[in-house]
Amino acid sequence: MNSVIHSQISVHKRGGKIDDYLKIHDFMDSTKELCSDNRHRILHTMWGIKRVIVPVFGHTIINSNGKAVNVKDLCEQDHILPDYQNRFIPNLSDFVKAIDDEAAADYDFKEFSKTYENDPELMELLLSPLSITGLQKSLLITHNSWFINEIVPKVLNRNIEIKDFNISPSDLFNNMKFKLWMDNGSSYPASCKFTVGKVVG
């Protein structure tokens, strides 16, 4: 499903016009630049909404009808749920558990973080996947060139860094297995095992 279709869903539910919503839906799917299949949907999680989307776009936007639209609801109801047949919203752990344990052990996250250790706000964001999942391999999501130069400048207004990075987004997706639930909700992820048949969110 592309960003125009998601925006049409938003117009149907919330009024306004496609251009009111297109930037948000485009941004949620910007990870298609990193991975051409549905493993790219790491922002299609509550972590993605809370830590990335809302900080970039704000808690609400005003559409062309003058109506306040809740960004969290927009992301959940008009983008993530339709992408999974309105069956579930995956959590970050679902994606992280698909990352190969042995391959992830090859990366030195402490060395990557050293550059940012005197910036507590940035360090909190970079370490947030570990805080949520308890799995060190989750740091492949934030400890890479894409997150530092595409996400951090938008979320925390930091400068981009022109340098060679030891970890790139390809290190994340090359080590992430494709799971059936990622295929537009063809099955349920582990986080939904107690809510099968129900819409969660």
UniProtKB/TrEMBL annotation:
Occurrences of domain DUF6915 (ranges): 1-102
Pfam families in the cross-refs: DUF6915
UniProt protein name: DUF6915 domain-containing protein
Species of the source: Flavobacterium johnsoniae (Cytophaga johnsonae)
